[in-house]
Inverse folding.
């Protein structure tokens, strides 16, 4: 059994997906880089298209994976950061301002005051505010010209007026409660609930990409999570209730086979584009309620997969066009999630969108796997773990004072605050 390191403070992420649950343990290593020292994953239950529809089933599935995670590193889960892929997610960008006192310099109290004003925006009783991200601050904005000094960190700057632009995310109160109940039934404290789209972007996007305009797409089993960045900050988040399982369903329908057999065909033989048109082969498979063996053309399978992925990508394009974000994506798209394991899906999307499309690669300067502690046949830095990795990196205070929640073995919560 793996033994704990001398550092007793660590972070736990629990990614609850439609088909899989992932638990990761990490602690701060050399140079501030996070090191994963424990992990487990298992089948999800009670989740449909990103929403928890059976709290008891989800809670039991979380418990099974949490127990495996404990065995991987001999460490209890006192508290954890959890994801949410709420189809009722609502996002908006807003601006508010405040006057400085007679000192003429921006202080931490001024920043907190203007942020608190922004966060006090009225929302529906059936909603809960789950995230606020500072996009930028403006010093002494002229009310006539709209011009001012744009800064990322205003503390210490001279100004009479401080304005903040923020990205606010709210989710359905019931959706958040279902997540909390599923976790807390296992005596695990929910430290933060983070939108999956925002978490997934943390390990995969560079500041240059965010500055120039980029969209991260996390293709999960039941949903696709989108996050759009431009001018260095997030400007849009969205959940689309379609995912890679719709590709599997299309295969099952096309060849009259079960969902499980269709998933096997997709993962073993799947491609999103035909690379060598002249080459083909027969693939053995079984149809529903039939013991006989059947054969299908590899190219016919690829064609079904291609059409299914095109449907997903067109949904993304329509949503981005509706929000008028599509034209601003100079850096194109970065794809993560289990749905990007299918070969050539990035090329198919690039051909449709006429923009750069890349499969995401983790910034290993931020996070690594401690191979002395973790034994896994899976590559934990692969794109399918994007959300879980991002939950580890996500720091709750997005306004300029970084804040990481750590939990020791006794379950004591300690906040480590670091200034930019």
């Amino acid at each position: 059994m793996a033994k704990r390191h001398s550092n007793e403070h660590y972070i736990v992420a629990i990614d609850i997906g439609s088909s899989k649950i992932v638990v990761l343990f990490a602690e701060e290593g050399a140079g501030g880089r996070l090191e994963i020292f424990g992990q487990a994953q298992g089948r999800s239950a009670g989740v449909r298209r990103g929403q928890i529809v059976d709290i008891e089933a989800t809670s039991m599935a979380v418990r099974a994976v949490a127990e495996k995670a404990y065995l991987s590193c001999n460490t209890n889960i006192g508290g954890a950061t959890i994801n949410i892929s709420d189809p009722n997610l609502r996002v908006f960008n807003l601006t508010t301002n405040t006057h400085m006192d007679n000192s003429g310099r921006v202080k931490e109290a001024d920043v907190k005051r203007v942020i608190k004003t922004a966060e006090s925006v009225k929302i529906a009783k059936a909603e809960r505010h789950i995230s606020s991200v500072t996009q930028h601050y403006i010093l002494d904005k002229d009310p006539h010209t709209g011009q001012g000094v744009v800064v990322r960190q205003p503390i210490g700057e001279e100004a009479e007026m401080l304005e903040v632009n923020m990205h606010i995310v709210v989710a359905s109160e019931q959706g958040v409660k279902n997540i909390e109940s599923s976790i807390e039934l296992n005596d695990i404290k929910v430290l933060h609930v983070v939108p999956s789209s925002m978490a997934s972007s943390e390990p995969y996007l560079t500041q240059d990409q965010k500055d120039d305009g980029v969209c991260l797409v996390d293709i999960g089993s039941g949903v696709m999570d989108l996050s759009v960045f431009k001018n260095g900050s997030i400007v849009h988040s969205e959940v689309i209730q379609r995912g890679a399982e719709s590709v599997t369903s299309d295969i099952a329908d096309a060849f009259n086979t079960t969902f499980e057999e269709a998933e096997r065909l997709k993962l073993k033989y799947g491609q999103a584009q035909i690379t060598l048109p002249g080459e083909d082969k027969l693939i053995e498979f079984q149809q529903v309620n039939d013991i006989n063996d059947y054969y299908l053309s590899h190219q016919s399978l690829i064609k079904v997969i291609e059409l299914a992925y095109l449907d997903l990508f067109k949904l993304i394009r329509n949503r981005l066009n509706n929000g008028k974000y599509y034209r601003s994506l100079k850096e194109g798209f970065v794809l993560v999630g289990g749905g990007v394991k299918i070969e050539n899906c990035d090329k198919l999307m690039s051909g449709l969108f006429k923009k750069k499309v890349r499969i995401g690669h983790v910034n290993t300067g931020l996070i690594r796997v401690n191979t002395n502690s973790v034994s896994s046949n899976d590559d934990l830095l692969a794109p399918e773990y994007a959300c879980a990795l991002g939950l580890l990196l996500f720091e709750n205070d997005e306004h300029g004072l970084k804040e990481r929640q750590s939990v020791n073995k006794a379950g004591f919560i300690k906040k480590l605050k670091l200034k930019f």
Summary: The mean pLDDT is 88. The two ends are 38 Å apart (CA to CA).
